[in-house]
Input
Amino acid sequence: MTIRVRLMIAFLGVVLATNLLLSLVTIRRVGQVLIEEVQMRVLLDLSAAREVYENHVQGLAQFLEAASLDDSIAAGLQQDDPQQLAQEVRQIYQMDRADMISLLDRTGRVVYRPAGPDQRDGSMADNEVVQRVLATGQPAMGTLLVSREDLVRQGINPALLARWGPDPAKEEAPEDLLEHGMVVAAGVPIRDEQGGLVGVLYGANLLNGRYRIVDTIRDLVFQNQTYEGKDIGTATIFQGDVRISTNVKTEQGRRAIGTRVSPEVARVVLEAGETYAQRAFVVSDWYLSAYEPIRNPDSRIIGALYVGLLEAPYVHRQRLIVVVFLAMVLIAATATIALLWLITKQVLKPIGRVIEMSRRVIGGDLGARVGIRRRGEMGALLRAIDEMADAVAQREEKLKAATRRQIGQSEKLASIGRLAAGVAHEVNNPLTGVLTFAHLLRDKHEASEQDRRDLDLIIRETTRVRDIVRNLLDFARESPSRRQPLDVNGPARQMLTLLRSQKEYRAIRIEEDLAGDLPAVEADQNQLQQVLLNLALNACEAMPDGGVLKIRTARRGGEVIIQISDTGVGIPREHLETIFDPFFTTKPTGKGTGLGLSVSYGIVQQHGGDIEVVSEPGAGSTFTVVLPAMGAPSGEATQAPTGAAGKEPSDE
Ligand code: ADP
Ligand code: MG
Output
């Protein structure tokens, strides 16, 4: 899996998880708040509905009160003038504000009824409203249950009685609904000029099958709002547990008259007399509904008032919120992915370039660079990689040049070596002859003193030539590394002989200080000789105007050291670190290869030894070759006795 995919999965996980969690919490919370708000609203609506209901009752009372102010009614009652009274009351009745009107005397007996079969003789003293007016002398009002016969007696319009009644579609008709009706009633006192109570004007409106109150509630409280063709708000008046006035519709579109409330609501509202607010399935839809009891003036519960809010619009709103939130989550996730895609593309682009660049470098294109400039850690990384490539390219270039030089040099050296070996070989035999015959001549009796001296010179010089030739032969011979116990003074002397034969270093005085009792070292003679020659040549080259070259051998604890010192230019401090590096040279091209010290160091290391340098710029340098002595455990630190070094007898 790539970094990008991993990053994206991780980010997406985080975004989705947090967003979903957030949405879930918010949606639940919003849902709760919404429900609370709706329940609150239903309760408020219920009290508004109650207000409308009370208003209706009060309106009736106010109407009667206004009518009762007419002095002629009181006068008619006092004078017992039926004609006059009938005229007055009929006028009131004709204003059509009450279904039933009765004028009663001080005792509650019926004096006049504008409608109805039995106009006189009856008594309404047992009517709760009338009782109250008679008892207090004040207007009274309320909701009452009235028997059918009483309604007829009070002069109700028969058409109203016919309209009320249970839904004909329903088989079973509630018994009590047929026996009683529910009315809002009001009674106002009639007073004489002195304020004495002379009668009661009583009026009542039937609620069964009448829809003024519930429709007013719907219009005022719910402002007639609809949702998908249904009224959002509905109101119902119950007589007992039966719907007698409602704007809840049945599936056939009729008002749901005659149906009953659920037993639970009946228990809470009708029996316990409490307000009930709950989600309820009414007729065909879910409603958020609230009920409260309707009481008669004696505080007996005779029915209930109900308002219901259609739940669908709220559910719809809640769904909308859910949808909006889910959409937000989706958008956030998509945006995250897109953003991350771009960011990772931007961030990871250099990695691709680095890989591509590395492949090109491996393939040999040393000029390849990442070539992207960035800030921060990525920038540092890219710069470092490019710098590394620069360094590699430079080094490669140097190496190539040096190798070219070296190859040329070694080819030259090799051919010179072969040539020298050939010449030396050719010269060697005649030299041996010359020497032999010179000795023979010298040992002759007849040779004069002068001849002997001359011959000695010849022998000495020839011997010197032979030594040089031998050394040359030894040096040029390509022999595999062959280690053997060795006295380091041997190669040291051979090196010196070779050096002395070089005419260009005539200005250099050579001093030797070779210890006599050195332990042997295990070494390859030729290689050791090459090391010493390299060091000695460096020393000579450091003294172009002459100086002293000193070679010293000594024992140092468990080691044998060979020291080559010069009084030359010395080595600057900053070069001490690098002089052993291959190809490090301060000499002009063609003169130095920068290989001498590195090759020497390699050889000495292979012998388990080391090369130490001490140098003072302007004063000279000392190179010390350290080799482990044979038979001495390494690391043994016995001090070499000073002044023990002595001249070793010549092996000639
Ligand atoms: P080369 O002799 O071809 O330059 P070497 O490896 O032998 O290469 O030496 C490396 C460098 O070390 C020399 O170029 C020189 O600057 C420095 N060096 C070595 N020996 C001496 C010395 N005895 N005195 C001063 N500089 C020295
Ligand atoms: Mg050198």
Summary: The radius of gyration is 67 Å. The pocket of adenosine-5'-diphosphate (ligand 1) is lined by residues 534, 538-539, 542, 566, 568-571, 579, 584-587, 592-598, 621 (CB under 6 Å).
